[in-house]
Request: fold
Amino acid sequence: MAWWAWMIVAAISLAIEMFVFDAQFYLVFFGISAALVGLLGLAGVDMPDWAQVLALSVFAVTSMVTFRKRAYELVRSRTGHVEERLTVGDRVTVPVRLEPSQTCRVDYRGTSWTARNVDETPIEAGREAVIANVDGLTLLVRATA
Reply:
């Protein structure tokens, strides 16, 4: 098979993984392996078709066994993280009555955030709340005194 055909197989595999369905990184390693076989052909390594398929299989299985678990955990286990420093003590307006331990959406610095009432009393709709802390992408708020 020509080197460019392996590159097409690689591009299709990666596109299917990214845009069509979530195969949990199996097609990524298959696509990368197809690209490696294509690069070998481009570099002038002349292999019969059976050796190309064998190389694809070896590359794919080896890379999956070696890297898939780490790559999957790295991408899937990420929680939201805010780079910009949020100011504890800033105020937000709560649009609905927010009972203790309940959440709602609030606007803060031009963005919609999830806010959780960490106070023991409800916060009435339209009232201001104070940001007590931040947990990932959730503002922990208390009623203003």
